Amino acid sequence: MHKHKEEPKINCLTFRKQEFLMKDITEKINQAEDVQDKAMYAQELLKKVDTLFSCPDFKEENIHCKNCRFIANLRRRTADLIIKAKKLE
């Protein structure tokens, strides 16, 4: 029996709403068999990530904001890689 790594608890309604949507989109990316479909979902993922980066409540010194930005950066890199893979086809 293995433990799932616990995700950071980010106390932010904007993050929680977007994270729920991003997880759903990520699941669609993982289930898509075709690179075109994966890239389409990756574009959707970038829109959700951009919402986090444009958060009006962002505070550099807030740990929740730092964690949010860290996760948003990871999601952005993932989406960018998928989109680049589509272009290589």
Give the helices and strands, then pairings.
Elements: H1 13-31, H2 35-53, H3 63-88
Your description of this structure?
The protein has helices spanning 13-31, 35-53, 63-88. Helix 1 (13-31) packs antiparallel against helix 2 and helix 2 (35-53) runs antiparallel to helix 3 (63-88). It is mostly helical and 89 residues long.
N to C succession of SSEs: HHH
Determine the strand fraction and express it as a percent band.
under 5%
Domain count: 1
Please report the distance between the alpha carbons of the first and last residues. Answer: 39 Å
Task: Tag the structure with descriptive keywords.
89 residues; mainly alpha
Question: Would you summarize the structure shown here?
Answer:
The chain has 89 residues and is mainly alpha-helical. The chain has three helices and no strands. Helix 1 packs antiparallel against helix 2.
